[in-house]
Amino acid sequence: MQPRDRLTAKEMQIATLVWEGLTNREIAEVIGTTEQVVKNYLRNTFDKLGVWSRLELALYVASHGGAHWVEELGIQRETQELAAVVAHSV
After folding, report:
1. Helix boundaries (H) for 32-65
2. Alpha carbons 63 and 13: distance in angstroms, whole number
3. Which end of the chain has fewer CB within 10 Å, C or N?
4. What φ, ψ does residue 28 adopt, rounded to 5°?
5. Distance CA 21, CA 84 (A)
Protein backbone atom coordinates (compact mmCIF):
# COMPACT_ATOMS: atom_id res chain seq x y z
CA MET A 1 0.00 0.00 0.00
CA GLN A 2 1.30 3.40 -1.00
CA PRO A 3 1.17 6.19 1.59
CA ARG A 4 -1.21 8.03 -0.74
CA ASP A 5 -3.72 5.19 -0.37
CA ARG A 6 -4.10 6.09 3.32
CA LEU A 7 -5.51 9.54 2.53
CA THR A 8 -9.21 10.29 2.71
CA ALA A 9 -10.90 11.94 -0.27
CA LYS A 10 -10.93 15.28 1.59
CA GLU A 11 -7.21 15.01 2.42
CA MET A 12 -6.50 14.26 -1.25
CA GLN A 13 -8.61 17.24 -2.31
CA ILE A 14 -6.76 19.56 0.05
CA ALA A 15 -3.37 18.16 -1.00
CA THR A 16 -4.32 18.80 -4.63
CA LEU A 17 -5.31 22.37 -3.85
CA VAL A 18 -1.97 22.90 -2.07
CA TRP A 19 -0.25 21.50 -5.17
CA GLU A 20 -2.22 24.02 -7.25
CA GLY A 21 -0.80 26.82 -5.10
CA LEU A 22 -3.74 27.85 -2.91
CA THR A 23 -3.20 29.14 0.62
CA ASN A 24 -4.97 27.64 3.63
CA ARG A 25 -7.43 30.54 3.61
CA GLU A 26 -8.19 30.05 -0.08
CA ILE A 27 -8.62 26.30 0.40
CA ALA A 28 -11.03 26.96 3.27
CA GLU A 29 -13.10 29.22 1.00
CA VAL A 30 -13.14 26.65 -1.80
CA ILE A 31 -14.25 23.73 0.37
CA GLY A 32 -16.49 25.78 2.64
CA THR A 33 -14.79 25.41 5.99
CA THR A 34 -12.44 27.29 8.30
CA GLU A 35 -8.72 27.80 8.00
CA GLN A 36 -8.21 25.83 11.23
CA VAL A 37 -9.99 22.79 9.78
CA VAL A 38 -7.71 22.98 6.73
CA LYS A 39 -4.67 23.06 9.05
CA ASN A 40 -5.98 19.96 10.83
CA TYR A 41 -6.40 18.12 7.52
CA LEU A 42 -2.90 19.16 6.48
CA ARG A 43 -1.39 17.94 9.75
CA ASN A 44 -3.02 14.53 9.26
CA THR A 45 -1.94 14.44 5.62
CA PHE A 46 1.66 15.32 6.50
CA ASP A 47 1.71 12.49 9.06
CA LYS A 48 0.27 9.94 6.64
CA LEU A 49 2.65 10.86 3.83
CA GLY A 50 5.74 11.47 5.95
CA VAL A 51 6.21 15.04 4.76
CA TRP A 52 7.00 18.11 6.87
CA SER A 53 5.86 21.10 4.82
CA ARG A 54 3.46 22.37 2.17
CA LEU A 55 6.35 22.35 -0.31
CA GLU A 56 7.10 18.69 0.38
CA LEU A 57 3.39 17.93 0.08
CA ALA A 58 3.18 19.71 -3.29
CA LEU A 59 6.27 17.84 -4.51
CA TYR A 60 4.75 14.55 -3.32
CA VAL A 61 1.51 15.22 -5.21
CA ALA A 62 3.44 16.29 -8.33
CA SER A 63 5.63 13.19 -8.29
CA HIS A 64 2.67 10.87 -7.72
CA GLY A 65 0.48 11.95 -10.63
CA GLY A 66 -1.18 15.03 -9.18
CA ALA A 67 -2.97 15.76 -12.44
CA HIS A 68 -4.75 12.43 -12.10
CA TRP A 69 -5.78 13.01 -8.48
CA VAL A 70 -8.42 15.47 -9.63
CA GLU A 71 -9.85 12.88 -12.02
CA GLU A 72 -9.75 10.12 -9.40
CA LEU A 73 -11.53 12.27 -6.85
CA GLY A 74 -14.21 13.25 -9.31
CA ILE A 75 -13.74 16.88 -8.33
CA GLN A 76 -16.22 18.92 -10.28
CA ARG A 77 -14.88 21.34 -12.86
CA GLU A 78 -16.72 24.14 -11.03
CA THR A 79 -14.62 23.50 -7.91
CA GLN A 80 -11.42 23.73 -9.93
CA GLU A 81 -12.57 26.94 -11.57
CA LEU A 82 -13.55 28.41 -8.19
CA ALA A 83 -10.11 27.51 -6.85
CA ALA A 84 -8.50 29.32 -9.77
CA VAL A 85 -10.68 32.40 -9.21
CA VAL A 86 -9.92 32.48 -5.49
CA ALA A 87 -6.18 32.05 -6.13
CA HIS A 88 -6.07 34.92 -8.59
CA SER A 89 -8.32 37.31 -6.71
CA VAL A 90 -6.10 37.58 -3.65
Report:
1. 35-49, 54-63
2. 16
3. N
4. -60, -40
5. 9
Of residues 7, 22, 25, 26, the one with CA closest to residue 64: 7
Residue 33's domain spans which residues?
3-89
| CATH number of the CATH domain containing 26 | 1.10.10.10
Residues in the chain: 90
Could you report the per-residue pLDDT of 62-83, keeping only the tens digit for each? 998 877 777 776 655 455 556 5
What is the value of pTM for the model shown? 0.78
DSSP H or E segment with residue 87 = helix 77-89
What's the number of domains the chain is made of?
A: 1
C-alpha to C-alpha distance for 21 and 48, rounded to whole angstroms = 21
